[in-house]
Sequence to fold (504 residues):
Amino acid sequence: MTTQPTDEATVSLAVSTVIFAVRPDRPTALPSLWLPLVRRIRPPFEGQWALPGGPLGAREDLETAAARTLAATTALTPSYLEQLYAFGTLDRSPLEEGVAQALGEPVERVVSIVYWALVNSEEVIHSSENASSENVAWFSVDDLPDLAFDHDVIVEYALWRLRNKVEYSRIAHAFLGDTFTLAELREVHEAVLGRSLDPANFRRQIESSNVVVPTGKRVTGTSYRPPKLYRYNQSVDPLDRGPLPPVRKPLP
Amino acid sequence: MTTQPTDEATVSLAVSTVIFAVRPDRPTALPSLWLPLVRRIRPPFEGQWALPGGPLGAREDLETAAARTLAATTALTPSYLEQLYAFGTLDRSPLEEGVAQALGEPVERVVSIVYWALVNSEEVIHSSENASSENVAWFSVDDLPDLAFDHDVIVEYALWRLRNKVEYSRIAHAFLGDTFTLAELREVHEAVLGRSLDPANFRRQIESSNVVVPTGKRVTGTSYRPPKLYRYNQSVDPLDRGPLPPVRKPLP
DNA sequence: CCAAAAGTGTTGTGCATACACCCATGC
DNA sequence: GCATGGGTGTATGCACAACACTTTTGG
Fold:
């Protein structure tokens, strides 16, 4: 059936994750999208920034591996986690034909299964003081450094998916705490989409979709009319997660 | 950075493809969706039907591997090919803990990167006489046998993606030859979606989207008003392929 | 002329945008 | 009372579904 000899041993498998959070550029400014990167401590691309990730454990689900790299980088559990794409072209690392062989090392071919995740922004601010080392840093997506491997393409694609999905699905609440005002939710949408939204229409959209329910409480201490607090409505649409495979039937 | 010891050597990588074609159930009936399966000739699941696929070649792109399994199964080149999902849960094969170890064989963990493809239906009918062996057969998606591994879930998911994408994108022409009538294109949509569509509105939708251009020719030999023939307009939207990573920048 | 499918016109409905306007609070 | 953001009402436009209607062919 196969028409080509194969040599599986030289293809290895890794899992990486593009982690998004929404946070303000400067304390007073409007929030925007940020993501954490790790600095590579060995060749290739030593010293450059890269997506968090690592090899897949032999007894570890793909999604578990993604959550693990996420925890290692941000000390958080993801509020949203979804597979993005499997990257496996032959030219992902420039060392293939050149340096690696010159060094006498085996030419390693890596296929990366990449996930994308959203994390609660408030928690990020607290945890980043504890967990962040020299080799982990957060960057605004509008001001990213040069990335290792093809990670620039991967981030670009993850951004495309995030922006797409925010428009047709209801995942933005994953950036927020368990209660939030509609203005906060709208600011998240605005940060992701990079444009301002009409507060009136946004309110109606969200309310008619039933993805949030009022808690009955209000924010206090404002110098204006205190807004209502809402909570995410967990009972609505698992379809929210969109392109994910259906739950499999139990094996006999 | 990683918090868990790993043993990569026991995870192997395969590529499989869900191949769709549209063809009539019976000569006179309305067309519906079909897909080719291969019969397994070794355990596990020996004798059961499974998706075409195989191990990834060491010097082979993922997409190339998918096209290869497609050619091996249908003797065709795909008119549409897109990555579907990477399946890698630990329970994909029921043999892991039991039979394999009892047999003294290593417990093999397989991660499958699955593609989905559309093939030209006319060509299928011709090629299937030549290429089809005892161990390859086409099945209607409404009447599938029990499948090996988690392939039933995979097919279900591929169907979901196909139906989704036909609605918001313009890929249905991939099932047809290079020229076709709007009625034929509509029948493809109907076969995929499983419901009938208003011919008038369908015509307007397609014409206003500019995805097809009239060839100027008409079908001959009909016993009624001869319909115009159209051709796919290649110049419109590469966005058509939708969730695919952007083209990567060349490496330095 | 008739049957059958191609192709066109017309109308209504739902939904998203734009924007005018009122409400509640702290100062 | 006034500034500020919370929250409501309403008109306009557009995409799409429904369906009546006309056109073109072979028999």
Notes: The CA atoms of residues 124 and 175 of chain A lie 10 Å apart. Residues 181-183, 199-200, 203-204, 222-228 of chain A lie near DNA strand D (CB under 10 Å from a C1').
